[in-house]
Amino acid sequence: MKALRRFTVRAHLPAQLAALERLSVNLRWSWDKPTQDLFAAIDAALWEQVGGDPAALLGQVGPGRLEELAADDSFVRRLDAIAADLDDYLTRPLWYQQLGGEQSGAGDEAGLPKGIAYFSMEFGVAAVLPNYSGGLGILAGDHLKSASDLGLPLIAVGLHYRSGYFRQSLSADGWQHENYPSLDPQGLPLRLLTDASDNAVLVELALPDGAQLFARIWIAQVGRIPLLLLDSDIPENEHDLRSVTDRLYGGDQEHRIRQEILAGVGGVRAIRAFTELEGLHAPEVFHMNEGHAGFLGAERIRELIEAGLDFDTALSVVRASTVFTTHTPVAAGIDRFPVDMVERYFGPDPGDPSVGGSRLLPGVPLDRILAFGAEDDPTKFNMAHMGLRLAQRANGVSLLHGRVSRSMFNELWDGFDPAEVPIGSITNGVHAPTWAAPQWMELGRELIGSDDLTSLRETEAWSGLREVDPGHLWWIRCQLREELIEDVRARVRRSWLERGAADAELGWTATAFDPGVLTIGFARRVPTYKRLTLMLRDPDRLARLLLDEERPIQLIVAGKSHPADEGGKALIQQIVRFADREDVRHRIAFLPDYDMSMARKLYHGCDVWLNNPLRPLEACGTSGMKSALNGGLNLSIRDGWWDEWYDGENGWEIPTADGLTDEGRRDDLEAAALYDLLERAVAPKFYDRDDNGVPIRWVEMVRHTLQALGPKVLASRMVREYTQKYYLPAAQALRLVIEPGRSDTAEFAVPFGAARELAEYRRRAERAWPQIKITDVDSYGLPDTPLLGSELTLTAQVDLGGLGPDEVVVQAVLGRVDAGDALFDPDTVAMTHTGTAESGHEIFTATMPLPITGSVGYTVRVLPHHRLLAGDNELGLITLA
Ligand SMILES: *Cc1c(COP(=O)(O)O)cnc(C)c1O
User: Fold this and answer.
1) Which of 211, 238, 321, 877 counts the most CB atoms within 10 A of its CB?
2) Rounded distance, CA 217 to CA 199, Å?
3) pTM of the entire structure?
């Protein structure tokens, strides 16, 4: 008989051990080795058995053992010290507090946001909380941990999925099976948000046809950062609404829009309830990690309308304080909904047309919501476009991805060259204490001479590696490889058993894989662009590499395919079938159920981390960074972060044939390049040993990788960049727009007057723009034969369509031209307003030296200008001569 539901009954903790509870619910344990060791000391075998999960351990340890520990002075002392360390971590001033100190003396003028809300559909914080499917979620988890380490006042919001993402297993013939174990929130490190009378706080959303969606709010504590997770699986909901939060990325579009409405609109409501109950400052900055939670902007507009603002003013406030990060360089990967579906959720209720806007967002007109998501296809609502239209600041996640995004979203800034599209980039990073092996952390402590590893953010802190003996570095690498091989053998065995093999035929697994062989890892989700099977392009050649007598390689492969992606499952099957071959199965394996705990072992132990996406479709990629933090060498197509930080000595670049339209040929070329590199560069270096068996040239690459990439790939570097380049300017922009405006008009001399002034300006600029014309451009001063440095004077007459000369910028644009007269990489020079022509047109002029030789061209253009815009390009309005 199968139980309908399961839950955990725990033994009482003796008073002396009470702190264990606190240590188990704060997920800081997941990146703090001393806390993990403490839990392991309670019962080493049980710790193993529960997969290193403190909450599960406390749920299963017997009262007898707890009594014993309570009487053990040394254990209690150790516990107290670790609990004190947690308290210290949670309260001492960190980087953010120091940043405030440096900038201030003046409180608010320091400009630092008093609160930041971070929205994501998935969070990969720890293996025990399987609320993630891949890189996006892991990145969000690492963002929270680093925000905690740096002391940011950040609150995160997402959904609690009853079944998380699926667990993967394989059928006998290598087909992916998905299992959805039901998670018991009581057994997870979560607490429920309750009000003063101990009742669960519920957020409530009005859906079409009179339905109401309720959600309770779980809180996961990630160090200092509260992570609010909304959960619809409660009796207050009608049956089918209980399953809104059943699975991550499962179900149809209808299911998905409900999840995204809950995350966005419900997420803001959850934050309001949380900050009020906890007495925290309301967030000033809202960060959307991908467009999924974009409806949060619509909810914030509703709040401001309720507080008395008009729509445009509310939008100005929301834009000023919103940051949007895009992660998707593939148009097909962007989240889009049918427009009529959005209309159903955000349109007026047919039963009650008296409410302006929808029942969900009273006062927010449907047409304005639809305009946020408008794109080429009038039947589609585009969540990335909504993100960009709701955020004054936006970024991609690597230099290359920033560039790709500027092109991809160019249509929203029509008339601008891609380079001028206001989308920046911050390259992703990874949380070192989570991903670096304990051996490396230990070495770090020795080199720095302190337990406090915060200085790892500085390049100099890594210079001590220069002095470390190559033999020692190699010894750590070998240790980590051995640990991995042990884990791989166990997993291979388990997988074969699951697939129906008998114990008796699995003797070979005990010696499969070899701790002395060059070990290559390839693990990631399985969308087509990541090309899981590129390595199989020439199976015979791969087999020869695996089985080489002198310089063999071994390959460990893992990854989940989206449940609806049959193509991805077929790729997995191809790998599994190859790895099943008796002649190679001791050198290549596909390990089912890639998750954070398997990932850690792989990053620790693999010598080489392979990545062969179709360039430029990997926005950043982070698994290679985690490998690099462990002295793994990347062997990768120059895509995402690797395009930026490959330096010729920290790994290898697989030459890309991007630009070739024949995909098959491209795969052939890139696969051949991969085999060549493995055979001629990678393996020879690995097996070139000195008298002590150390591959000196290899180890020097390991050392260089750690030194060169170590400080760069850190999530602490990333979060500091977000703080300085996005959060701080957004908070400052918010504080400006909620002030009274500058204009003389009484209408603006009230709180939010500046936002109203900006909204009013935007309306006028948009109205005036079609009338703006540059009527005449004249040049003076050039000699017959212009020389480098000759002065050129340009004047332009401009019909401003009713705007004032100080409400625009007129620019001279000067630079090299190609055969088609297109300017590239031009200089722009602001032109000065010098008077009004008889025609009423305004005259602008500028003088500049000719900056380059060769074919040079110029033009003149007009852009809107206002002190409250983040840039003159923000509104996407431009007129060229
Ligand atoms: C880091 C990580 C990813 C992301 O890997 P990419 O190569 O960047 O796609 C996915 N899953 C897990 C479990 C990870 O730890």
Assistant:
1) 321
2) 11
3) 0.96
- For ligand 1, the distance from its centroid to the CA atom of residue 524, given in whole angstroms, is 5
Question: From residue 379, how far is each of 207, 252, 330, 337, 344 by CA, in Å?
Answer: 21, 17, 19, 8, 14
Q: Cα–Cα–Cα angle for 103, 109, 115, nearest 5°? A: 90
Q: Could you tell me the CA-to-CA distances from 103 to 97, 649, 770 in Å, in that order?
A: 10, 39, 43
Q: Which of 136, 138, 430, 606 is the pocket-test mutation for ligand 1 (most atoms within 8 Å of CB)? A: 138
List of E strands, 559-706: 588-591, 608-611, 633-637, 651-654
Q: What is the pLDDT of residues 230-269, one digit of tens each?
A: 999 999 999 999 999 999 988 899 999 999 999 999 999 9
Look up the CATH architecture of domain 761-880: Sandwich (2.60)
* Mean pLDDT for all residues in the chain: 94
d(CA 441, CA 836): 68
Choosing from 532, 593, 623, 641 the residue with most ligand 1 atoms within 8 A of its CB, the one to mutate for a pocket test is 623
Q: Do domains 114-168+179-390 and 442-713 have the same CATH topology?
A: yes
> Which H helix or E strand runs over 447?
helix 438-448
| Domain 114-168+179-390, CATH class in plain words | alpha beta
- Length, in residues, of the chain: 881
DSSP state of 110: G
**Which is the closest atom of ligand 1 to the Cα of 435?**
15
Per CATH, the homologous superfamily of domain 442-713 is Glycogen Phosphorylase B; (3.40.50.2000)
Q: State how far the Cα of 358 lies from the Cα of 261, in Å rounded to an integer.
A: 13
Nearest 10 degrees: Cα torsion 497, 503, 507, 512: 10
Q: Is the pLDDT of residue 109 over 70?
A: no
Name the residue ranges covered by the structural domains of the chain: 15-91, 114-168+179-390, 442-713, 761-880
